[in-house]
Design goal:
This protein is of the alpha/beta class and 274 residues long. It has 12 helices and 6 strands. The structure holds uracil.
Length: 274
């Protein structure tokens, strides 16, 4: 059976959405896309396509780009957490904004001593507009409860990316670098005593390291914030990784025990809130 041009275009649109990670319906009612789908555009002439491939190169972590500069300007202009949230909502430099349902800014308590930084919202977080509310979030809560901490009293939580990457794919280096000015400003405005970097993406973004999380975890690192303050940061394993690899929970447990011990000793994080 041969397909009509409309059905072919509809099929192409569906394939594209699946490739972009659209794995669930957001609207209650179906949209009649076939009614307004234009015929697929003619492919660009071959020489043009060759030129685009030839100029592609990997993006280093902190490469300056016009969108990156716009992010830095917007972030620097925010003088409160509310202003920062508004600036991030206004920022149009990332296509992730178009595919996400909500901006996911933060959860937890303002003025908390510990700021947890994760990777990016998943489906539940995107739906509710809050970080770590799905299965990983529940494990995160249980992990901190085991050292007597809760998001209602001790934690302020955010992510490297404020928008869900389609299909929960791992954020790219370019996306991490793009949103970094917002994350650094977020830390400066939240003024925690110390940071917990949950997973490799948060560690890579804030420590600017190419080392994997298993090499970085288990010891304190220093992160320079925009106002020249240096904060201690503990990279640890991401709860989503722990859900898939329960044997690794003992390492995360050791990291949190170190955090608890060093905070109680009054060394790490004490007096950092100047
Ligand atoms: N994983 C993250 O890194 N952040 C969330 O908010 C949820 C899951």
């Amino acid at each position: 059976m041969s397909l009509s041009p409309e059905d072919t275009a509809l099929l192409a649109s569906l394939r594209w959405q699946i490739a972009m990670g659209a794995d669930e319906a957001i609207l209650a009612d179906a949209v009649a896309r076939a009614a307004r789908v234009a015929p697929p555009p003619a492919p660009p002439p071959a020489p043009q396509r060759q030129a685009a491939t030839a100029t592609a190169s990997p993006t280093p972590l902190r490469k300056a780009t016009p969108h990156g500069e716009a992010a830095a300007v917007l972030a620097a202009g925010a003088n409160s957490l509310e202003e920062l949230r508004a600036a991030m909502a206004e920022f149009t430099g990332s296509p992730l904004r178009e595919t996400a349902t909500n901006l996911v800014f933060s959860d937890g308590i303002l003025g908390a001593p510990v700021m947890v930084i994760g990777e990016a919202p998943g489906a539940e977080e995107d739906r509710l507009g809050k970080p770590f509310v799905g299965a990983s979030g529940q494990l995160l809560d249980r992990m901190f409860a085991s050292i007597g901490m809760s998001r209602a009293r001790d934690l302020y939580i955010t992510n490297i990316l404020p928008f869900r990457p389609p299909g929960n794919r791992t954020p790219t280096d370019a996306e991490i670098a793009l949103f970094l000015p917002f994350v650094l400003r977020h830390i400066a405005l939240a003024r925690p005593r110390l940071l917990v970097l949950a997973g490799g993406v948060a560690a890579k973004g804030l420590l600017q390291s190419r080392d994997g999380i298993t090499r970085l975890r288990g010891r304190w690192h220093q992160v320079s914030i925009l106002d020249a303050k240096v904060l201690n940061a503990m990279p640890t394993l991401h709860p989503a990784y722990l859900l898939r690899n329960p044997i690794a929970k003992r390492d995360a447990w050791a990291d949190l025990l170190m955090l608890q011990r060093d905070m109680n000793d009054g060394g790490i994080g004490a007096g950092a809130k100047s």
